[in-house]
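Bench notes, afternoon.
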Amino acid sequence: MEVKSRHHLRADAIDEIETALADHLGVDLDGDAYETVAFEDADYEVVLVDGEPAVMYVDDEPFLTVQGANAHPPERRIVTVDAGAISFVSDGADVMRPGIVEADPDIEAGDLVVINEESHGKFLAIGRARTAGDDMLGDAGKVVDSIHHVGDELYEFSG
């Protein structure tokens, strides 16, 4: 990933990020240094929090990266998958109903969500919900589109 630009964020932009993450995820992101990084070959920006890629903008909405979710575990918008789904989700596959063991009932279709694995509580991916949280458990169908996952270019990026 080739960096196109990077710059430190103003206080109002930092407040916007911290408020959005607190409102949507219940996360208290309290960093000392915030820096935005734009890439030549990607359509998203990343925010380095104290040097770590903790936040990304998805369609102008700030949301945690996989690293950010593991460093600052969210309380809401969590979809938990079973052990059988881990390898698929970690490879960037969309999330299917049969692999889901639990989903935040407050998730609405279109929300950004974090994908968690039930065994160790680690976050594996970020995605966009296709359906409401209370409709995610079942026998068939794709319910979360993967956006960012363990092992992708963003995950491997270091500030």
